[in-house]
Write a structure and sequence with these properties.
It is a single chain. The protein has about 475 residues and is α+β, with helices and mostly antiparallel strands. The protein contains 19 helices and four strands. A four-stranded antiparallel sheet has the order 1-2-3-4.
């Protein structure tokens, strides 16, 4: 009986000790022994500089491992989707905790550690951001170059090198995912791009791995659009997309061609802008041949032809657009593009038809409503130019034709007024109404409209 009590007591003591051992990390801060890692790097650097040991693959693998540890140690316990309670056991309690931190439109709880900020939702780790490094410099390339040197020194070590490179690529992909979830588009792109570079040196590389280049290109476009808004991001995107295509990769729908257009079009300050747009047109044509149902490619081609970069005749697009609209007659953007194409062809009637379809699909679209009024003005101006070229034999004929022009101008008024109603702060709409109503001032009710819009124009101009 006494023995039973003693054994029970021992089990209780051991249970308490186990709990204490498990609880120990919970009260300690994140541990990254920087000096130990740096010492290992120093020893590894010295090792490969040795005349004899520097010729051994093992020395270079050890160096790669040392740099890899420096690279990964601060985030080694983090995985997307892991329960935060598990991370807390491994890393201890955070230095601070803040609820309601928004990243990429999502609200998180931010856990601040000495080396990293962790973002948690529903008790799961979603993303993180490393805040300091173990060692300055390009640790990724130091690690990669060491592993690759090991292979060059001894091809028999290919298996070990492949495993090491695989670990490095996986780290880059995981980091890329974390950066993407945190809306750090440029950093995410860089990690995906480097992941493909590392994978490209592995025998296990597959054509599907080129998707990382596609992701990188897309994210660099996003970085140029809404992230850093750096022109260099677009150039990086082009490079990534080019390599993806060269590797034989295209996404299932062919949107890579659409995004390539945006990568070229984003380079607005480029000295070779026209050449870039010609290249974008060529790629979009190639994409359309492979993916004829991709409306994003057609929409991009519309932009190319109507952007004023001298890439070709917009009439080439009409058949493509109408075919796309047969497949999807409710595609608002395609109707919008169709109207732009016909405006560039000076076919104002078809432009008006197209934009009327836009506002049928989206009645509150102030821009499309304004354009209908604007196209009626353009049509009236074109008719007026024709009248001025004619040699009239009678004033009656001239007056009849002039009235036709006036009637066309008048058709634009309701649309411009509707556009103003939808967007009363748009200065261009008010200015256009002022000019047009003054031109029509002799028509019934137009002088009152002119007085109204002239007053609004002066008020808005004074506020600018």
């Amino acid at each position: 009986m006494v023995l039973l009590k003693i054994n029970s007591m021992k089990r209780l003591i051991f249970a308490v000790m186990a709990i204490m051992v498990m609880a120990t990390p919970m009260v300690n801060a994140q541990k990254v022994n920087k000096q130990v890692i740096l010492d290992k790097i120093s020893k590894a650097d010295a090792l490969v500089k040795d005349a004899k040991k520097g010729k051994k693959a093992a020395s270079w693998i050890s160096r790669g491992d040392a740099y890899f540890k420096a690279l990964t140690e601060p985030t080694k316990d983090l995985f997307a989707g892991v329960e935060y309670s598990v991370v807390e056991v491994a890393m201890g309690l955070p230095e601070s905790k803040t609820d309601g931190v928004v990243l990429n439109g999502v609200s998180y709880t931010e856990m601040v550690y000495p080396w990293v900020k962790i973002y948690v939702a529903n008790n799961k780790v979603i993303t993180w951001e490393q805040t300091q490094v173990v060692k300055e410099g390009d640790l990724i390339m130091e690690s990669f170059n060491s592993y690759w040197k090991a292979y060059e020194v001894d091809k028999k070590q290919a298996g070990k090198v492949e495993l090491a490179l695989g670990r490095l690529a996986n780290y880059l992909l995981q980091t890329g995912n974390a950066c993407q979830d945190a809306a750090r588009w440029g950093a995410a792109a860089e990690n995906y791009y480097q992941a493909y570079f590392v994978k490209s040196h592995c025998a296990s590389l597959t054509p599907q791995d080129a998707q990382y280049l596609y992701f990188a290109g897309y994210l660099w476009v996003l970085d140029g659009n809404v992230g850093s808004k750096d022109q260099a991001s677009y150039k990086k995107a082009v490079e990534a997309f080019d390599k993806a295509l060269a590797a034989g990769y295209a996404d299932e729908k062919g949107d890579i061609y659409h995004f390539m257009y945006h990568a070229y079009n984003g380079q607005t300050d480029s000295a070779v802008r026209e050449a870039n747009m010609q290249r974008a047109k060529q790629l979009l044509m190639e994409g359309l041949a492979k993916f004829p149902s991709n409306d994003n490619i057609i929409a991009a081609l519309i932009d190319v032809y109507t952007a004023g970069d001298n890439v070709g005749d917009p009439s080439e697009l009409v058949d493509m657009i109408d075919a796309a609209l047969k497949r999807d007659p409710n595609n608002r953007d395609m109707w919008f593009g169709r109207g732009k194409v016909f405006y560039n062809l000076k076919n104002y009637d078809e432009s008006i038809v197209s934009f009327k379809k836009v506002i049928e699909l989206e009645p509150t679209n102030a821009q499309a409503t304004f354009f209908i009024g604007y196209f009626y003005i353009a049509k009236g101006d074109a008719m007026s130019e024709e009248i001025n070229k004619r040699d009239y034999k009678s004033s009656a004929d001239w007056k009849a034709d002039s009235q036709k022009v006036t009637d066309v101008y008048k058709l634009g008024i309701p649309y411009l007024e509707k556009a103003y109603e939808l967007d009363p702060k748009n200065f261009s709409t008010v200015e256009t109404l002022k000019i047009l109503t003054f031109r029509l001032r002799e028509e019934d009710g137009m002088m009152d409209k002119y007085t109204k819009y002239n007053k609004l124009y002066e008020e808005m101009k004074a506020q600018q």
